[in-house]
Task: structure prediction
Amino acid sequence: QSALTQPASVSGSPGQSITISCTGTSNDVGTYNLVSWYQHHPGKAPKVLIYEVNKRPSGVSNRFSGSKSGNTASLTISGLQAEDEADYYCCSYTGSSEDVVFGGGTKLTVL
Amino acid sequence: QVQLVESGGGMVQPGTSLRLSCAASGFTFSRYTMHWVRQAPGKGLEWVAVISYDVDNKYYADSVKGRFTISRDNSNVYLQMNSLTAEDTAVYSCARGGGSTGYYYMDVWGKGTTVTVSS
Result:
C-alpha cells in the first residue's frame, strides 16, 4: 500500500487560512469516508484533529475542518496561529483487511 | 488522565530481536483496539500493527508481516520485533483506536520509544 500524497510543505501568515491536500486512490480515500488528520509537534505525541473525513473530536478547535472530493481529502486551518506550526498527516483506511495508511506529512510554517 | 507510555527501545544489531511495551492508564483498556505506529528519522508516520480489544484480530503492515507480533494483556500492549533491519530504525508509538471499531483512526497517542538498528 503506497503512502497517501501530501505536499511537503505549506505556509501562511497569522490569521490566514491554508488547506493541505491528501491524495489517495479510488481504493482508499475515494471509496471510504475513513480519513483522519493528525497534528504532530516534533517530540510530542500526535493529536487527532479530524476523523471520518469531517468530524472533529471534542476539544479540537473549530478552526480545523476536513472535507473530501473524489480521491482527495483536505484539511483546512482557518485563522492561522503561531502554535499551528507543526507537521500534519492524513490517514485513510486502505480497503484491505483493517489496514490504514498515512500520508507523507506536510510541514506547516506560520510566517 | 488518559495516558500511554512506551518503553523497551534501544540500540540493537541487525538480525536481533526487541520487545516494546506500552502501558495504558486512565481508561478501560480492555474496551479498546490498540495500534503501533512508527516514524523513521526524517520520514513520516507509518502504521505498523493493530490488535482488537478482544485479542481476536491482529493486522500488520506488509513491511513487518512475519517479523513483528502484536499482543496485549490487562493494561499493556506489546510489539515483539524479530529479524530487525536498519529499515526498522524509528520512534515507535502506541495509540488507542478511536470510534466504534477502533481500526480506522487513533484518538490517544504516546510519545514513543526509539529503536535503532545498527551494527
Chain A has no helices and nine strands.
